[in-house]
Amino acid sequence: MYEWHKNIQVIVDEIDRCIKHQNDEALTLEHLAQKLSYSEFYISRKFKEISGMQFRDYLRYRRLAFALKQVRDTQSSFLEIGLNHGFSSHEAFTRAFKETYGMSPREYRQNPTPVHLQSIIRPFDCYLLEAGGTGMLGSVEDIKTYFVRIPAHKFLHIKNYESRGYWDFWQKQSLIPGQDCETICGILDSIKGKLDDNGGSEMNSGSGQIMAYINEPTGRICSWGIPLSECYGVRLPIDYDGEIPPQMHMVVVPEAEYIVFEHGPFDFETENSSVEQLIEEAMKTFDYSATGYCLDTSPNRIFYFYHDCLRFWKYIRPVRKV
């Protein structure tokens, strides 16, 4: 099953790539089955088994998700957007858009509120699968450490006071209506202007979505000896005034100084655990005494966590001068 989670992720990534490049000829089950050297029937059955939906339904939702962002971010005609995303007419696109999002493209463009894109599936997420090999363990010198000053911004998020890590966080959130991973990621993906959004569709920083920890008295005491609530959300500009989804929280994060512990790109299948160990060791052994700073454990300070194997793994921890 592990191998098939990986295979379905290949299909999911290929669908996104083809939609971005408007390569409709490759957006067929036949093409994707050939890519993996399996029959269309077998691919279709495994896709439904792992993703929970038919291949054709996922493809339709994914086309609509890309189309929604074009409606939101451009002034292109709805006919042009519809045709670019596989719909035969203005009417067919409008009907599908309204059935999925509860409003017409015109209504959404006039008032682009957060919506559930209903298309984010991550069949090969190493954390949700509790996977990620140890690989070759490097040294703490592989971790880049530096100080930054982050301007004031807002943080839109959900939180859990009892979870212990990413996998456990989503397991607990899945028990709360409307706060499961697929729903939350779909809503966050629809929000424009995320500070960490690089245009990708990946969870954990590719589309601007990150984990964080807020120092709160009601939080769980972590290994650092600090009461933290675990959060998942997006950083937004300080002047963001969009709608706040009812299951989420918004906090204002003042301008402040932080220390960053960063590892470069890595293969999460073979190196995930070893990179995690290296960063944990670097944070544990870092000597603040020579820097003029110390870790800031004041209430309401935020610790950010970015995990994107194609770019970096980094912790951003609040500091203050001593």
UniProtKB/TrEMBL annotation:
Pfam families: HTH_18. PROSITE patterns: HTH_ARAC_FAMILY_1, HTH_ARAC_FAMILY_2. SUPFAM superfamilies: Homeodomain-like. Keywords: DNA-binding, Transcription, Transcription regulation. This is AraC family transcriptional regulator. Transmembrane segments: none annotated. The lineage of its organism: Bacteria, Bacillati, Bacillota, Erysipelotrichia, Erysipelotrichales. Signal peptide: none annotated. It comes from the Bacteria. InterPro entries: Homeodomain-like_sf, HTH_AraC, HTH_AraC-typ_CS, MarA-like, Tscrpt_reg_AraC-type_HTH. It comes from Erysipelothrix larvae. Residues 13-111 form the HTH araC/xylS-type domain. Coiled coil: none annotated. One of its GO terms (molecular function) is DNA-binding transcription factor activity.
